[in-house]
Design a protein that fits this description.
heterodimer; A: mainly alpha; two-stranded antiparallel sheet; 8 helices; B: mainly alpha; two-stranded antiparallel ribbon; 2 strands; 59% helix; rod-shaped
Chain lengths: 232, 229
């Protein structure tokens, strides 16, 4: 393994100082790097935090718009129902999408775990699988958008009820879908690089870990979008 | 090699099995919330509470394991988690504001039920039509010859015109109703009011809606002078 600057490596603390609060105070008061992680990881967390506030604000304003709507809110179960052989199953498409996206969270975690273990093949394989799940998700979302637009949903109006529904739907799922698309791009690049053995040459799989952080966040947004927009 | 990696972290690496177990737990939680949705569990507040609780559990699992946050040092953990708690304040204020707006809108709909009811093709409110007529009268130069103040210009004033009797050149009396005003705009020389020159050009190029708007404006000038109607 090539030698690296060891500054970011966790400094071992004396046994009696190993409480959370003590560690927190030592790190923040020591006039050194507070986070003790690679700078790129700290930056990724800062980006995620910012993005979390963006999605948090979007979801919150959706909640405010919905609370203030006097027309009845459209029944998501009927709007997003999928017809299979004459039977209408409410929300089936969204449920499948959710399962796909949340599964991709698992494959990504495995990719990161294999990255830690320097398992080149498996890290690349699971990253690629994650990207595939992402493509599937975006594809199904495009299908859902097309259906809804054909049925007359617009950001300013829709045939089912409160007009705020359209704006909320397109903004929330659109912004999230954009994140998934960007994630697919990143994952494809990372998977190709991992497969070529670039991270073995560099000596660590940090890129896989960072892509995993981003993907975990995109996943996390859906964890809240799914219940609050579709199930509520 | 993997051992040297593990030493760099606060906690030992979770095994592959741990990830699989977390993955399974998340899948169960999603299915659970979907089933609750399908069963339409009552009451609504309980259903929504369960959805929120399940989402938060999923989020904590995903952040701690899939995003590895539980292996990081507290300095990073708190830097990430504490600011997010501020979102709670935003949510409380925004939802409070939303329900306040809802109350205001409902009160408004109760007092003016017709104005808020959505219709197929909303016809402009009378007030808008008058305003439109005023603009059209200015744009088409009507007001150069017809005052709105009662003053006599080239043509008769519009003030108090609507509904008033007009004496024509041949001595007959007609009432200035909508039909009369319409005719006088489209073909002004059909009926000439006594004492005024027949110089007004026809305004037949105006659309029916525009003519109606101008008539509405002329009407409004009579309603102001005689509040009776």
């Amino acid at each position: 393994m090539p030698s690296q600057p060891q500054e970011w490596v966790t400094a071992p603390l004396p046994e009696k100082q190993r409480t959370s609060l003590r560690q927190l105070l030592t790190d923040w008061a020591s006039d050194r790097q507070a986070f003790r992680v690679r700078w790129s990881k700290a930056m990724m967390w800062i980006f995620i935090l910012g993005d979390a506030f963006v999605f948090g604000s979007l979801l919150t304003s959706y909640g405010a718009a919905r609370a203030a709507a006097t027309a009845p809110w459209p029944n998501a179960g009927e709007v997003f129902a999928l017809r299979i052989g004459g039977a209408q199953i409410p929300l089936l498409l969204v449920a499948i999408m959710t399962l796909i996206l949340l599964s991709s969270g698992g494959t990504m975690a495995l990719a990161v775990a294999y990255g830690f273990r320097h398992d080149r093949k498996r890290a690349a394989l699971f990253t690629a699988l994650t990207a595939l799940c992402g493509v599937l998700f975006v594809g199904l979302q495009a299908f859902e958008w097309t259906n809804l637009i054909h049925e007359g949903a617009r950001p300013w109006t829709n045939p089912w009820g409160a007009p705020q529904f359209g704006a909320s739907f397109f903004l929330l799922t659109g912004f999230h879908g954009l994140h998934v698309s960007v994630g697919v791009l990143i994952l494809t690049i990372v998977a190709a690089r991992a497969a070529r053995g670039l991270y073995d040459q560099k000596g660590d799989y940090l890129a896989v870990e960072l892509a995993g952080l981003y993907w975990g966040f995109v996943d996390l947004v859906w964890v809240f979008l799914f219940p609050f927009f579709y199930l509520f | 090699m993997s051992q040297s990696k593990e030493k760099e972290r606060g906690e030992p690496l979770p095994s592959i099995g741990t990830y699989l177990r977390v993955w399974g737990a998340i899948a169960v939680l999603i299915t659970l919330s979907y089933v609750i949705f399908l069963l339409e569990l009552e009451p609504l507040w309980l259903r929504r509470f369960l959805f929120t609780a399940i989402a938060l559990t999923q989020a904590i699992l995903a952040v701690s394991y899939f995003m590895q946050l539980r292996m990081e040092r507290p300095s990073l953990v708190y830097a990430v988690v504490l600011p997010l708690l501020l979102l709670m304040a935003l949510i409380v204020f925004a939802l409070g504001e939303g329900s306040y707006v809802f109350g205001v809108r409902e009160a408004q709909q109760l007092t003016t039920p017709l104005a808020e009811k959505p219709s197929e093709r909303p016809s402009p409110k009378p007030q808008d039509l008058v305003e439109l007529g005023k603009q059209l009268a200015q744009a088409n130069g009507c007001l150069a010859c017809h005052s709105t103040t009662g003053e006599r210009l080239v043509g008769p004033t519009w003030k108090g015109l609507y509904g008033s009797p007009r004496e024509l050149q041949d001595g007959t009396l007609v009432t200035a109703d909508e039909g009369y005003l319409h005719e006088s705009i489209v073909s002004p020389n059909a009926k000439i009011v006594k004492g005024f020159p027949a110089v007004m050009p026809p305004f037949a190029h105006l659309s029916e809606e525009q003519i109606q708007a101008i008539i509405a404006f002329i009407k409004s000038l009579s309603q102001e002078s005689s509040k009776g109607e």
